[in-house]
Amino acid sequence: MDIPQQRAAKRCNLCRRCPVHLNTRDSSCMLNAINCSIARLWTRFVASTSSHTLAGLATRHCPCGKPDSRLVSSDRGCKAEWRRRLRIFATKASTTTLYLILLLEILQLSTPTFAAKTGLCADPEPTDLLALAVSDTTSYTDGVELVNVDGVQGYRFGPTAFLAGVDSDEIFVHCNRFPLEFSVVVNFNHKLVSTSNEFVMTLLAQDKRTILVALRIRSKRFYLDYMSQGEVRTVNVKDDRFADGNWHTVVVTVSRRMAKFTIDCAEPIKRELLVPFPKRMNIRNTRIFVASRRKKTKQFTGLLRQLVLFSGSDATTRICPSTNPPFGAPGTPAGQGVLFESDKQKIDCSLDQRGTLMYKEDKSMEVCTGTTFQQVRGGRERMDYVIDYDDINFENATVSMEWFKIDGVGLFLATAGGAGGSSQIMKWDGTRFNPFQNIPINNVMHWNFFQIGYDNYLAASVLSSNCIIFRWARRRRKFVLSQRLVVVNARNSEFFSQDGRHFLAVADYGQEGGFVSNPRSVIFEFRDGRFEVFQYLETKGAVDVTFFSVENSVFCLVFASAYHQDSFVVPSPIFCAFSPTLKFDNYQDIVTYGATDWEFFKINDRYFLVVANAVNSTRPIRREDKVNSTDSVIYELNLFQRQFHVYQKISTQNAYDWEFFTIGAQYFLAVTSTFAIDDGTPNVKIYRWKGYEKFVLEHTLPFGSALDIDYIPINGDHYLAVSNPKTSASSDYRSKDPLGSKLYKIVTY
User: Fold this and answer.
1) What is the CATH code of the structural domain delimited by 127-331?
2) What percentage of the chain reaches a pLDDT higher than 90?
3) Using an 8 Å Cβ cutoff, are 349 and 356 in contact?
4) Do the beta carbons of residue 706 and residue 720 sit within 8 Å?
5) Within a 10 A sphere around the Cβ of 99, how many other Cβ atoms?
6) In this structure, what DSSP letter does residue 277 have?
7) Phi, psi of 471 (to 5 degrees)
8) Helices and strands in the chain: count of H runs, count of E runs
9) How far is Cα 91 from Cα 104, in angstroms, rounded to an integer?
10) What pLDDT does 420 receive?
């Protein structure tokens, strides 16, 4: 129910007391309001007419009240009499007169009677601002996390939650003025001594910049800001406990010329307001922001457990001497309590039930948002741990995998058998991947799924051969051969589109041994239903290609150069192009060491590339070398210099593949190693980005020789598919580890 409807519902109180959250669509309330309007309209007429007889009849026949009084009775006989009198009046009065009186009545109905009686625009009950902010179903609450400290839960607001809050019209429903006297209760935990302002609560004016009322913390001081006489006025108190890492409750009470700060129910500290708090502070179309000032900077970095507004009263008397506020658990909206799943059919999720919690049999919680029940989550989803979910049973060794979806068909996983192995496609049945289609082709090193219009394709990069395109046949419900793209030694492919044009870049390794006079990779363009050569790019021993764009204006391809002319130290080139020609030119060369994979990713407004370096020397890998330890490097793009620079080095052993993925507001990088080690060293490692700490090791998987790793989101769950060659058929991947490919599940909370 929107704000005008709420105000209209309040006007039903002219004749009888309506529920606070009564919807104006309620027929009984509307009928009552109409009867009230008719009665008052008739009273005005008979009071103004010279006919004393009509006035006398009205008084004698209607016990509701006198003609000049406001009717509060619900007597049906009285209302019927009023309606009958009105019909008599309508037959005698002109249409113009009737419309004028009706207009006066409408204006009268808009009078805020509650505010006139109490002087308050909001209900006198406490308003939990924190609960209203975190129960918002919009994207404003992205980045809010529920954190447990010393057995007490509180909310932490991340950088993306700077718009979290509540509209003033949802609280002040009777008029548009902030109360002259009020209290705000803040229960918080803060560990750092911040030299900059951190706003706990901010009420901004319509321009979304000017502070009307704000609470903030800086350097162990708690500030109250308020707008009065055209300037922002400030009072504060200092206490070392504000940054000791413990939970504290501060009650800020404001009257006309006095502000009182009560810290943990100790003796109040009073501050005189040299400039009095304004009597009439207009808050129409404003918003109260929680833990921010509507900016990503100056956000509150601590934890909030309570943020409650009391209009027209001193909250100190309600919560002290207890340091635990009696008005509910942290962040729990005011509703009808907690229900169990078996009771769900007994209620409807309506505006009256907003905030009601539902405890489900799977131990999860749902909250009524006013229209439907939605799952309660303590901020955004986060990784907890990783479990071994299932074995992926392939008939052959697997060097890489590609997952994809076909609308109306399902989720698939294409496997590449590598040197000497065949390939097949698996289909997800809801719990695991099962064989779906065998592809009659050997030596596939990589699969790449893409869509052009309504058609679905798979590109197979075949070792020492071409790149073969398969198309999904809708009627036959399987992939069929579509086209062969001529290259020397396809190792990887990447599809991309721009300005309505479709391209496929193929990484061509060249002849085995790397002794090619003019090695080059190829970009194909899709024209008239077929791929045709668009451009050749000079590369050396390319085994991987990755496409990325920067600010949707620069389009780039980066190639991983693994081996060339008896050396693993080979520059990996980055080619970039601009619209509309899309002709790629060499942009930057990065020296790599047996590079096998590039992964591009973006964190906020920052662009990164990470390379998997497999060796640490210029000599060939010897079979007796179990481990080749070296640094794989993360590069960050400097937008001003237009160059990638080293961001972080991560020690890896024979790194083969990187995979970037996100869970909630967390960013992860997973890396695999090709050599199985007998001492139990994990060959799959997962790193998490922690801002200033950069990427930090978070999880390890005790996997054998691992090649490809793919992150697969399925129906809200998170999985990692890891491939493992079961034989040593290929000279590139020497592993006798019998462990097959696996599917891991990421457990979140």
Assistant:
1) 2.60.120.200
2) 36
3) yes
4) no
5) 10
6) P
7) -115, 140
8) 9, 48
9) 20
10) 72
